[in-house]
TrEMBL record:
The keyword ATP-binding belongs to this UniProt entry's keyword annotation: no
Domain of life: Bacteria
UniProt keyword annotation of Ribosomal protein present: no
One GO MF term: acyltransferase activity
GO biological process: secondary metabolite biosynthetic process
Keywords associated with the record: Acyltransferase, Transferase
Any one Pfam family match given in the protein's UniProt record, by short name: ACP_syn_III_C
InterPro entries to which the protein is assigned, alphabetical: ACP_syn_III_C (IPR013747), Thiolase-like (IPR016039)
Protein name, entry field: StlD/DarB family beta-ketosynthase
Ranges where the Beta-ketoacyl-[acyl-carrier-protein] synthase III C-terminal domain occurs: 280-359
Length: 376
C-alpha cells in the first residue's frame, strides 16, 4: 500500500459573484411573481454571494466545461495533462444521462487514454470520486488521480422550467404557486467546480496526506429527502420520470430538484454526528487531535446545530477550528468540499503536522462521507 497525498487543488467559479439582490433577476420570477420564500431562505442560509454559469441571460458553461477549467489549474511544469492516469469525477448535475460525466470531461482534456470513474448522487458524489482516486493510488493501481466535484444547478432553477406547472395549476383553478420544496432550493444552490490532484508522494510547499476515508448510508432506514427526475408518492417511494406521460414532465415539474425540509431537519445533523463518532472511534481519533473542521453545510442555519449534534456525541469542535466559505461561494453541492480544501491550502494557514477533518452530508437518502488529513 502507498501513502496518498493531495498535492495540488484547483477551482473554477464562473463569471462574477452574484449578490442576493441580483439572484431573482438572473433566475427569473415564476409566474411573474416575486418569490415569497427567497428572503426567508437567504436570511437563514447566510449566503451573501454565489456564482452562476449564466450571464446576461446566456448560458456560459456546461458542467463538463466548469470541471475541465478547474482541472487545468492543476497543471504546471511538473505535472501536465498527459501525466494524468485516472480521472474521477463526481456531480449531481451531469450535462446528460450518458455518456458519463467523466467521459465528457475527458473529451475536453485533449490528452491521452486514461482510466475514468463517474460518481453520481448529491453532495457525497464529490467525496465518492475522491475515495475512488484515493483507493486507486493507495493500492498502486495508479500513481496519481485527478478527482473533481462540480455542479451547474442554476439552469435547473430558471423560472421558465416551472412555467408549464403554473399554467397547469391555473387550468385546475388552483393557486399558481410552486411548492416550497421546489422554490426553497432555487435560493440555495449555485455553480462551480473543484479539482484535487492525488499522488503517492508529497509535492510543493504543502501537501495533505489522506489518512482515511469513511462513508455511511442510511437508505435502508429512511426514504429520500432530496430528489429530482421523479416525485414522491404517499408511501414514500419515488415514481421515476420514465413512468410519467411525457406531457406530465412539464405539467408537474418532474425534473425539478425537490427537498423534504421536515425530513432534512429531523435527520441530517443527528445522523451526521453519529457517523462522525463511528469514524473517529474506528480510527482512534479524538476531537483534540483535530486542528481544522471543514464541514459541508447547505446553510448557516445548520452550522450551530451541527456543533450541538457533535457535542451530544462527545465531539467538541469549537468555532475557532471551523473553516467554511459557504457565505462567499454558496452551496455548490458536490464541489463544496473541494472549494474548501482549495481555499484552506491557498490561505497559508496550514502548518505541517496539523490535522483536518472533512464532513460531507448528503440528504438524497442520507449518506455521509468523512475524511481525515494530515498537513505535510
Amino acid at each position: 500500500m502507498f501513502n496518498v497525498y493531495i498535492t495540488k487543488a484547483g477551482k473554477y467559479l464562473p463569471n462574477e459573484a452574484v449578490s442576493n439582490d441580483e439572484m431573482e433577476g438572473i433566475l427569473g420570477m415564476i409566474n411573474d411573481t416575486a418569490s415569497k420564500a427567497r428572503r426567508i431562505v437567504l436570511r437563514n442560509n447566510g449566503i451573501t454571494s454565489r456564482y452562476y454559469a449564466i450571464k446576461d441571460g446566456i448560458i456560459t458553461h456546461n458542467n463538463a466545461q466548469l470541471t475541465h477549467l478547474a482541472i487545468e489549474q492543476l497543471y504546471d511544469s511538473r505535472f501536465t495533462k498527459n501525466d494524468v492516469e485516472l480521472l474521477s469525477c463526481g456531480t449531481s448535475s451531469p450535462d446528460n444521462l450518458f455518456p458519463s460525466h467523466a467521459a465528457m470531461v475527458h473529451g475536453l482534456m485533449d490528452n491521452r487514454s486514461l482510466e475514468l470513474n463517474s460518481s453520481s448522487g448529491v453532495c457525497c458524489a464529490g467525496m465518492n470520486a475522491l475515495k475512488y482516486g484515493f483507493l486507486s493510488v493507495k493500492s498502486g493501481n495508479t500513481s496519481n488521480a485527478v478527482c473533481t466535484g462540480s455542479e451547474r444547478s442554476s439552469t435547473w432553477m430558471l423560472a421558465d422550467k416551472f412555467n408549464n406547472e403554473v399554467i397547469n395549476l391555473k387550468n385546475l383553478e388552483e393557486q399558481p404557486i410552486i411548492a416550497f420544496k421546489k422554490d426553497f432550493l432555487r435560493w440555495m444552490l449555485s455553480d462551480g467546480a473543484g479539482a484535487l490532484l492525488l499522488e503517492n508522494e508529497p509535492a510543493g510547499d504543502i501537501s495533505l496526506k489522506i489518512e482515511w476515508m469513511e462513508s455511511f448510508s442510511y437508505a435502508h432506514e429512511l426514504e429520500a429527502c432530496m430528489y429530482a427526475g421523479g416525485d414522491k408518492m404517499d408511501d414514500g417511494n419515488i415514481k421515476p420520470w420514465q413512468d410519467y406521460q411525457a406531457e406530465e414532465w412539464l405539467k408537474q415539474s418532474v425534473f425539478a430538484v425537490k427537498q423534504d425540509v421536515k425530513l432534512l431537519e429531523k435527520y441530517v445533523l443527528k445522523l451526521g454526528a453519529k457517523s462522525t463518532k463511528i469514524a473517529l472511534d474506528k480510527h482512534g481519533v479524538s476531537d483534540s487531535d483535530i486542528d481544522y473542521l471543514l464541514p459541508h453545510v447547505s446553510s448557516n442555519f445548520f452550522a450551530t446545530r451541527l456543533y450541538d449534534a457533535l457535542l451530544e456525541e462527545g465531539i467538541d469542535l469549537p468555532n475557532d477550528k471551523w473553516f467554511m466559505n459557504l457565505s462567499t461561494v454558496g452551496n455548490v453541492g458536490s464541489a463544496s468540499i473541494y472549494l474548501m480544501v482549495e481555499e484552506i491550502m491557498a490561505s497559508r494557514k496550514l502548518k505541517k503536522g496539523q490535522k483536518l477533518l472533512l464532513i460531507v452530508p448528503e440528504s438524497g437518502r442520507f449518506t455521509y462521507s468523512i475524511a481525515y488529513l494530515t498537513v505535510c
